Amino acid sequence: MHHQDAPRTADEARRRIESLLDEVADLSDLTIAPDVFYGQVLDRLTFATSAMGAAVWTKSPNGHLLLAHQTDLLQCYPTGKAAKALSDDEAHLFQIFNRGESDVVPGSQTVQPGYDIVAVPLQVAGEAWGVMACYQPANLAKSVRQTYVRITHAFAEVAQHYQQQTLLRDFQQHQYDWKRQLAFAGLVHTDLSYEKTAYRIANEARNCLEADRVAVLSARGAKCRIEAISGVDKPHRRSNTVQKLERLASVVVGSKQTLLYTGETENLPPQVEEALLEYLEETPSKVLAIVPLQLDEPADDDEEKKPRRASEPVGAIAIESIDQLNGHELLHRTEPIVQHAATALGNARAYRQLPLASLLIPLGNFLATIGWYRLPTTLKIAIPLLVTIVALCFIPTDFSIEVHGQLVPEVERNVFAPSDGYVEEIFVKHGQHVEKDAVLMQLRSNEFNLARAEIVGQLQTAQAELDAILVKRSQGMRRDPRSESRTPESFENLSADQLKLTKQIENLIQRRDLLQRREDELKLLSPIHGQILDWEVEQVLAARPVSRGELLMKVADVDGPWVLDLELPDKRTYHVVNAQRESNEPLVVRFQLVNEPGKTYRGQVRSAASIVDLDESSEEPFVPLEAEIDKAEIPHLRHGLSVVGRIECGQRSVAYVWTYQLVETVRRYLFW
Hints:
This protein has helices at about 10-30, 35-50, 80-100, 140-190, 195-210, 240-255, 270-280, 325-350, 355-370, 375-395, 445-480, 490-520, 535-540, 575-580, 655-670, and strands at about 55-60, 65-70, 105, 115-125, 125-135, 215-220, 225-230, 260, 285-295, 315-320, 395-410, 410-415, 420-425, 435, 440-445, 525, 530, 545, 550-555, 560-570, 590-595, 600-610, 620-630, 640-655. The protein is an alpha+beta fold and about 675 residues long. The longest helix has about 45 residues, at about 140-190. The mean pLDDT is about 85.
């Protein structure tokens, strides 16, 4: 619209404003579209107040304010910041909407330069329906702001007059719509079938709204799924149209904001705009509205003026028209449709989620036929209870006993200290693979060192004495045999000493060899081909004193077969024994890894110990069991991996399976 130059005097400005008001007042009495009327009003308001822009915010079906009409707001809502700025301004304007009083509120801080909003609530017949907003530069003088408030209030009165005239003109049409809506409500609440309810909502909403297509979608977490499309028996879920509409509805429902598309996408959030443009490639619709279906929670008495709190969306309704309709009028007519659709779809979903829902209605009809509801309350309780007890006593189910255990290699050897001493050197690390007879560690014993020194000294002394005797005997034999100084006793003594020392030397050599063998045993060798299981071997054993028989290291053949070592509680042993006696096959044990819950593996009980053990780490006596497993089925095998399993012991009645532990406990404490 073209305006004259700015007025030079206050009187001229007043006359100019009065002229503009007269123009919009004349327009308010005409039968024109809201977009045309509000475009003219906002254009004149912007000119009259020299504003940055102006807008009319209206109340949406979900209780929030929606930017319905605007002019020259690109500076206030620039691309990239529009979504955040709109959200901030909507929160401020909503306070004005609730209070019902004109005021000036600050604009969004995300946009620079800043701006203020002159907001005037719009009411018709005492009910607020929107806010007229005039966007002014920030930090205006107080007197100027008050003047702008009065001017905006004057334009708002004209807008309210137009709205009243529009309501009067639409009254007859509304009566017709109300009849349709009443019929719609009766049809969508006919039954609780989810599919039928969605189908009725889609087709009846299309008739009420006179739209080209209506789709009903259900909310499943963060995604939406099309349940029904008007005029279509069953949606083709693989089509691009259906898939893109589901994606668009998911984004809209996630934002909990109504989407209204009438040809512009500038003020939409980026994620909504992207999904909308993709869907528009598949449809010729010129008007598209997607409204989340939410069940309103009842508000408290002191919160009547606040927006109603809404629960999680149960779905969405998508309305499309090929003709260029009035989108905001379409949304207004959609409000009662949405309320009834949300209630009907929510009730149908709640009914569908009931366990055995499909059997409840036939069961109720059957009970009414046999006169169940005429029975006394006592019989109504006693008969189902008796039937349930009898059924539980005869219906069989799987019976199993819980056990705990761990996965270990079948071949495992312990390495013990052969003598007292200390660890001198370690040749292996945790997880290292070793061959049989490979050196694991070297021990040293000070006791052996002292004993060896003592034996060597004794051996040297005895050897020296023996050499001396041999020298004496050799010297005596070289003398004259007829010499009188040689006596028989001296030769016999030397022979006896020689024999004694020879025997002593032999004993010392045997002791030395035995000591050497014991020292050789201090070099610990791997008994099998396997892997070192001990953690932090060097930190734990380096330079550590050890005692004879002390466990130093474990070696296991991890490449060979693995078994499951189980601990069966002693008080449950007879169940397993009886089951094994009745079965010709090994009992099956199903188990889960504690680090992989939810995935079950299978094994077979191979052997059971004939003793009852009591470990320090266990709370009660148990019988050790060993079960065969297929290690190829279990990824990431580790020694000692804990498992929780159940040994299958055939079938028993449901009552026995549910109560046997309670019965055993009562018998143990009351009849022992």
